[in-house]
Amino acid sequence: MATILTSYDTGSKPFKPDISRGKWSSLTDFYTATLTHSFGIKTFSIIPLYAVSTSGILFIIPFMVGLLILSIPLYFMQSFMGQFSSSGYISVYRIAPLFKGIGFSILIMNLATICYSICLTSYTLTYFLASFNPELPWMTCNNGWNTHNCTVVQKFDENHTLAYSERWSTIEYFVHAVRQVPPEDEDEVVIVSWRLLLCTIIIWVMTTAITIQGVEFIGKLLRYFCYIILVCLVIFFLRIIFLERGLHFIYHFFIPKLEHFNYFEYFMFGIILPISLYGTGGGTVLTLSSYNNFHADIKLYSWINAIVLLNIAIIVGICSSIVEDYLEEHYNFRFFYYEITDFQLPFVGMPFFIGKLEIPNFWALVFYLMLLLGEFSTCVVQMLSITTAIFDEFELLRTYKKGITIAISCCLFIFSVCFTTNEGTKIVQNLFNASSITLCVVCFLDIMIVVWFYGREKFQRDVLFLMQGKMYQTWEFMILRFVTPVLILFVTLINIAIYLSELYYVQNKYWDIILITILVKALPTILIFSWILYKMKISTGNILVRLKRICVPTDWYPIDPGDKRRYDDVIGACSENIRDLVTNIDIVDDDDGYD
């Protein structure tokens, strides 16, 4: 059987688990935490764009491909890594010490990501608070931020064509009031949006206060958030389908025109969309699963989560399609054609649609409460992932958890202020679009580590032990080992090419934004190769000997003493039952692991 080394064998510092890290009060908390994390602005901005661009229900085709071939296998694999090791995304790479740099790279990316995620959450909080005004501020043109080109169309007039210079009131509110972008005829200076700054302060204080309460409190809070989000979604969905000619619009969604389904770019992005919604490459699923009980049935929940996410995607697709058709038919407002932002539905089209409903303030509160809780959950989960990774890896810091968490929040808040300026909001949009590519790269590397470097036999053995005898089926493993990495590599390369081609056309105007995006998203990957070179340098022997030695798992065992003893018995005694179950699976020769 495979060899599992200890830190004593390698002469390295032993791993000491954090016995005070806590666990979820129930497995439901893990399920709802991953679901709320995947429900926010991205769900209501990217999915509607795909639904409209691919002519209705056809957007589900690439989305389902991504769920079945990428998301479900990756969700299970990363849940296995976190649950088996009970560690964050740095310490978990005891499974292959050579690639521990991936963990540090994820940490840096998450430190950068949470800064602009807080900014996105401040968008939703701004709209939520504005919904308490007697008159929704984005539905009028008599405000200080409006220009002389502002317009609010009360009803569709086929004899009036909107001039190019005219700007809808919802666009001006988002661009000039929220993002503080000056009109085109004014000199561009760096201006801080006091609305975003105030909301950013509130969100950072709440995120920090919740994080230091511990994982049990976070789990219960996110559970209730998830229930509220789903209730708001159902209420809002029911209101939309009962619009005038609502059934006609639904029919238009489910009976699309096939000639419109020729957008290769959207198909490729649609495949990786489930990965970006889950945040798998960012270590969030891995971190959340590390708080599970050791024998929790993660395989079942990977399928449940995928089914729920698919239904949410269909509901969001129907809502966005109906809203687009309704506004175009009644007000000639084609909000998806405005390229001032990639958030057309949540901050341009939906505000105008809500403003035309009866009791608009109520529906604005329902919609933006749903988005606010989803985005805020993302911030809490990201902060939990950051602190978990740090405290699991650095034992000396565990005594000062609350103080260090507050210090991290204060430092990150300073960087978040940059994203509350008119120039910073432009960077947020670019970083938001580039996030899926970095997630895919990390997911691809994780697959290589677990099912190739760690090895088929060892992975099957650990899954058997973790799932208490439930086998990971042959066809499932075949998909995870061969189909998933090939598809994710292909789609990632295509999306990189598409992204670079788009940057080529805007490089002269936004070269500074492009440079910052590359620095934030690409440079952390240098840590991966730097760590590999460092481990190779301090090891001994020729290159092959060094590579084999530092790829062997070190201290890779359950942290619970009882589970560890049983796991040691499995490895030490080479249980014939488990060995036969694993080796009888005729997949490939067992020479892929480093034994």
Question: Would you kindly provide a written description of the structure presented here, covering whatever features stand out?
Answer:
By secondary structure, the protein is mostly helical. The protein is 67% helix and 1% strand. The protein has helices at residues 7-10, 27-37, 46-53, 60-85, 101-130, 169-178, 194-211, 215-241, 246-254, 264-278, 284-289, 298-331, 344-355, 360-393, 401-418, 422-454, 456-466, 474-522, 525-538, 543-551, 561-573, 576-583, and strands spanning 150-151, 167-168. It has a two-stranded parallel ribbon.
Q: How many structural domains are formed by the residues?
A: 1
Output the radius of gyration.
25 Å
What's the CATH C level? Mainly Alpha
CATH topology descriptor: Amino acid/polyamine transporter I
Strands, total number: 2
Largest sheet: 2 strands, parallel
Order of helices and strands: HHHHHEEHHHHHHHHHHHHHHHHH
Q: Low-confidence segments, ≥5 residues, pLDDT <50?
A: 160-165, 574-595
Assign the structural class, choosing from mainly alpha, mainly beta, alpha/beta, alpha+beta, or little secondary structure.
mainly alpha
Number of helices: 22
Shape: globular
Query: First CA to last CA: what distance?
Result: 7 Å
CATH architecture: Up-down Bundle
State the fourth-level CATH superfamily. Amino acid/polyamine transporter I
Mean pLDDT: 84
Portion in beta strands:
under 5%
Q: What proportion of the residues is helical, as a percent range?
A: 55-70%
Biggest sheet strand line-up: 1-2
